[in-house]
Amino acid sequence: MKSLVLSMVMVACLGCDARISQFQAIGAKHHIELWSGGKMVREWTSTGKVLTETNSDGYYFCDVETQRLVRVTGDLVITPTD
Predict the structure, then answer these.
(1) Does 4 score more than 50 pLDDT?
(2) Which of these, 4, 7, 54, 78, is most buried using a 10 Å CB contact count?
(3) Kind and range of the H or E element at 52?
(4) CA nearest 73: which of 54, 46, 53, 45?
């Protein structure tokens, strides 16, 4: 089923690599880095999706290590790990 949905998205987004990658990352663990002053000040691994806050520039996710909800905003680098 996931392959069928992904194929449909790929056809709809011909030549749109960023959108294809976004759909492939759904449900995957992510590595989240928070940067300040050119230095990484915090990092986490999510248990799955990293979601954006509604009407905000923030993100939220469940942290693998603590199993707690984390809400964060700032200079972030979010990378799928799976």
Answers:
(1) no
(2) 78
(3) strand 51-52
(4) 53
- Rounded to whole angstroms, how far apart are CA atoms 1 and 77? 30
Q: Which two tokens stand for residue 5?
A: 């949905």
pLDDT tens digits, residue range 17-65? 555 555 555 567 999 999 999 999 999 999 988 888 888 889 999 999 9
What pLDDT, on a 0 to 100 scale, did the predictor assign at position 41?
97
**Domain enclosing residue 42, as ranges:** 2-80
Per the structure, how many domains does the chain have? 1
Alpha-carbon gap, residue 15 to 80, rounded angstroms? 21
Record the tokens describing residue 27, joined without a space.
């449900």
